[in-house]
Structures are given as structure tokens and as C-alpha cells.
Amino acid sequence: MLRRGGAANVLLSFLVAVILCAVIGGGCAISGYRQAVQLDERVKAGWAQVENILQQRYDLIPNLVETVRGYASHEKEIFDNVAEARTKYFAARSPDEKVEAAGGFERALSRLLVLQERYPELKAQESFLKLQDALEGQERRLAVERMRYNESVRTLNAFCRGPISRLFAGWAGVQERKYFEAATDAAQPPKVSFEQKPAGP
Questions:
Q1: Cα–Cα distance between 155 and 100 in angstroms, integer?
Q2: How does DSSP assign 98-125, residue by residue?
Q3: Which of 41, 80, 91, 115 is most buried by a 10 A CB count?
Q4: What is the share, in percent, of the chain residues with pLDDT greater than 70?
Q5: Which CATH class name applies to 58-192?
Q6: CA 179, 181, 187: angle at the middle one, nearest 5?
């Protein structure tokens, strides 16, 4: 009887241990799943803020192009590049595609803004002064939101690469995201300045 009782106790202890492991494992899995979803939602929310600023920025472009075109109508290639980059952004579907398209647009915009140095008469235009304020304000906001977005992406990507957490990410259907980096040839935000420079001798 003692042996049977001892065996029963061992079996009971084993079953209790299995149940506890299952409960703890299930709790960890649910917690990991929720964390993956929360991190993904944080990235989506951050991108929504970035996209809102980009939308406002892109809404200025037609007026900017038309203003510049009035003084530099033969710079067709630059105008076409800006239009193409803007179209690619709005045609992009996923956030990663939009991130890549936004980088291309920033490069095209930088080349457009350089035209002011070739055509000094642009600097006297009131419309340019208004665009200066709008573009610089949006650039500052974009820099802040880009930093916040990239931080949330960094956290998500680290989670997706963890030896255990990557399993939870896969279970939740969450994948790594691309960073929203400033374009290589536009690492310094384009400073739009239309102040008149004193004429040379």
C-alpha cells in the first residue's frame, strides 16, 4: 500500500508539474503575443504621424513647382523627377514601400530647391517666403516624428530577432520594419532660404 501510495504521489506531483508548466508556458505565450502586437501597433501609430506630415509636405509641391517653373521652365528633368517621386509615394502600399519612396522624394526635392541659387530672382517672390516657413516647419516636425518612428522600429526589430520572442512575433504575424532614414545626399535637411544676397561688385 505504501508503495502504491508513493507511486500515486509521484504521479500526482508529475501531473501537477506538467499542468503548472503548461499554465506558465501558456501565460508566457499570450504575454509574448500581446507584446508583439503592441509593438507593431506602436510602429503603425508612429508611421501615421510621419505620413500626416509627409502628406502636408507633398501638398505644397505643386505650388512650389509652378512657382519655380515660372523662372526656370527649361529645367524639365528636375520637374519630372519631382512629379515622378511624388507619384511613386502615393502609389506605394505598405509602410516599407512608402519609406523607400519618401527617400526618393526627398532627393528630388533637394535638387528642386537648389534651383534658387541659379535663379536669384526667385528669392524676391512672396510665395517663396511663405513656402520657406511652411517647408522649414514641416521639416522640423518630420525630423522629430522620424526619430520617434525609428525608435519604435528599433524596439520592434529587436523583439523580432530575439531567440524566443521571434517565435511570438511569427505567431502574431509581426515582421521587422524598415527605418525611415534621411536620403544619403540629403542627410542635412534642405534649408530653404530665399533672402536676397548683396550683389557683387
A1: 20
A2: HHHHHHHHHHHHHHHHTHHHH-GGGGG-
A3: 115
A4: 76
A5: mainly alpha
A6: 165
Q: For residue 150, how many other CB atoms are within 10 A of its CB?
A: 18
- Position of cell 524639365? 76
More confident residue, 115 or 45: 45
Nearest Cα to Cα of residue 189 among 53, 92, 74, 65? 53
Are the beta carbons of 135 and 197 closer than 8 angstroms?
no
Question: Contact, 50 vs 146, CB < 8 A?
Answer: yes
Residue 161 has pLDDT above 90, yes or no: yes
H/E run at residue 61 = helix 2-69
Which is nearest to 113 in space by CA: 133, 102, 101, 128? 128
Three-state DSSP at 196 gives coil
Model pLDDT, residue 43: 94
- pLDDT band, residue 194 (cuts 50/70/90): very low
Say how far apart CA 14 and CA 26 lie, in whole Å: 18
Cα angle 58-72-193, degrees, rounded to a multiple of 5: 60
Specify the residue for cell string 511570438: 168
Confidence band of 195 (pLDDT split at 50, 70, 90): very low
CA Rg value for the chain: 28
